[in-house]
Design brief:
500 residues, alpha+beta, Uridine Diphospho-n-acetylenolpyruvylglucosamine Reductase, domain 2, Uridine Diphospho-n-acetylenolpyruvylglucosamine Reductase, domain 3, Alpha-Beta Plaits, five-stranded antiparallel sheet, 19 strands, 32% helix, globular, binds flavin-adenine dinucleotide
């Protein structure tokens, strides 16, 4: 069956992802078991075929877009294998990589366990394998961190079909050196590259540090070192209650001051957890308002003085009222007001607020799809830059000045709690596209100089290789290339991602 699929035409949907880039491929396999996946990899190895790994294809860096060779799509590996516990007694859940975040959440709700898998990319149709491969984050990564810390164990298949079984805490690098034993009895050895990991939210290139847990090498490696074929997830206790708050402000600077104040105050707010601080600028709010599909999400009818908005999410440890005093004090200090603030305490209203967050990238994609009819090569230019806390105001000024000078249409939204907003430049033609690209590169250089990252969560894929070069230089990239060669000496697994 596998050989037949190798030579079958590939349906167009499997040639693209949410980056809206389209590629080509000679064949596709959709394995239904790890054994079928292994067999496909061995057959591809026998003929030297390059492989593109796909999860749910929600990625926006074109990592899942093939460039010839065989597509290995993991969406049929969608079994939830069962609950367990790790060595700390923390509950875990074993899953196949094609399980989507939506399916996982449904399973946890139906199992009636008071557990939560906290990584929460806005696009919940993402697969768990894809999330681990990209070290995905989301709004609540402000409190709980990205996917990495929530993986207890993994089975990784190498490009030739050989297998690694990795459990957190059991295989550590010795300084910069590592050795891993495969299922067939081979020992893979190598040296970790010297990369200066920024102390910010970061999903750019390989994550390395001396003495590291070798499980972490594969998380965030975007499918370039091995295929994540089974994962054991660490679950967190479910909060007694979740509260969403939408606050409107008349000025961006007031919202920025509020972010800093909230961060400061939240540190002393136990047992409540401030899980998320998200941002929508005036252009993002205007974009949602312009869409009739999303009108009902604007709670309630917008007022003229509402220019920008913050969305806050609180996880309450016990069934207690909103940490009112705290939020009102912070809002008052930042020229926010209870009259411009909405609270979602029940599930349907919370869902509405979450849909509100999702509406911005959806509207951006719809707008660009329309413009693409006139300019087929046009794409949005979405930044994913993150900076240290003390650079938040400066980076927003950098964006505002650059956009105003270039006269580019844009929206700004995202994970401001982590100083990680997405600037989406919406070019109207190819000359604006080129101008936008120059601007993004200039921003990336400044952000790296400030100790930030060129990718907080989306990864590098095929679209942001130049940015990774800005971050780590030729020597860093050469070190990453050497590391890849330890696991994939023929460069057949997701070639052309991260670096050429
Ligand atoms: C509207 C929208 C909002 C988004 N919001 C967020 C957000 O808030 N936070 C965030 O982090 N991301 C976000 N994303 C990006 C995307 O959802 C994430 O990157 C997600 O982790 C990709 O998962 P996927 O299953 O779709 O992977 P794919 O797109 O299929 O693949 C992504 C990369 O991972 C590799 N890969 C996939 N599965 C595996 C596997 N099992 N083993 C090895 N490699 C694999 C692929 O080869 C590719 O390089 C958003 C995307 C959209 C469209």
């Amino acid at each position: 069956m596998l050989l037949r699929l190798f030579s079958s035409p590939v349906p167009p949907d499997y040639l693209r992802d949410e980056s809206r880039k389209t590629g080509t491929a000679q064949g596709i396999v959709l394995p239904r078991s790890v054994d079928e996946l292994t067999a496909a990899l061995r057959e591809a190895a026998a003929v030297g075929q390059p492989i593109t790994v796909q999860g749910a294809r929600t990625g926006i860096a074109a990592g899942a877009v093939p460039d010839g060779g065989l597509v290995v799509n993991l969406s049929k590996l969608e079994a939830i294998l069962g609950f367990g516990a790790d060595s700390d007694g923390c509950p875990t859940l074993r899953v196949q990589p094609g399980v989507t975040l939506t399916a996982l959440r449904r399973h946890l709700a139906a199992a009636d366990r008071p557990c939560l898998f906290t990584p929460d990319p806005t696009e919940a149709s993402a697969s768990i394998g894809g999330m681990a491969a990209c070290n995905a984050s989301g709004a609540c990564s402000f409190a709980y961190g990205p996917t990495r810390a929530h993986i207890a164990a993994m089975t990784v298949l190498l490009a030739d079909g050989d297998r690694l079984t990795l459990r957190r805490g059991q295989a550590l690098a010795q300084g910069d050196h590592f050795a891993l034993q495969t299922q067939s009895g081979r020992t893979l050895t190598g040296t970790l590259p010297h990369l200066n990991m920024p102390a910010v939210k970061n999903a750019a290139g390989y994550w390395v540090k001396p003495g590291m847990d070798l499980l972490d090498l594969f998380i965030g490696s975007e499918g370039t070192l091995g295929i994540l074929a089974e994962l054991e997830l660490r679950l967190s206790p479910k909060p007694a209650q979740t509260l969403g708050i939408l606050c409107y402000f008349s000025d961006e600077n007031h919202a920025l001051a509020c972010v800093s104040a909230l961060r400061e105050q939240a540190r002393g707010a136990a047992p409540h957890t401030l899980a998320a601080i998200e941002y929508f600028d005036a252009d993002a709010l205007r974009l949602i308002r312009s869409s009739t599909a999303h009108t009902g999400l604007l709670l309630p009818s917008p007022q003229p003085h509402w220019k920008v908005a913050l969305y806050l999410e609180w996880a309450l440890a016990a069934h207690t009222p909103l940490p009112d005093a705290l939020t009102s004090r912070v809002l008052a200090a930042c020229n926010g007001s209870a009259h411009d603030t909405w609270l979602a305490a029940d599930a349907p209203t919370l869902e509405k607020l979450k849909a509100f967050r999702h509406a911005v990238p959806e509207q951006v994609n719809a707008l660009i799809a329309e413009r693409k009819l006139r300019h087929p090569d046009l794409t949005k230019l979405g930044t994913d830059l993150s900076v240290p806390d003390n650079r938040l105001t400066a980076v927003m000024r950098l964006y505002r000045d650059g956009l105003a000078e270039a006269g580019l249409q844009h929206v700004i939204f995202g994970h401001i709690g982590n100083n990680h907003v997405h600037v989406n430049i919406l070019p109207r033609d190819m000359s604006e596209h080129a101008a936008g690209k120059r601007l993004v590169h200039a921003w990336a250089r400044q952000v790296v100089a400030w100790g930030g990252s060129v990718s907080g969560e989306h990864g590098i894929g095929r679209l942001k290789k130049e940015l990774l070069h800005i971050m780590y230089g030729a020597e860093g990239i050469a070190g990453m290339r050497r590391l890849k060669a330890c696991f994939d000496p023929e460069n057949r697994l997701n070639p052309g991602r991260l670096f050429d």
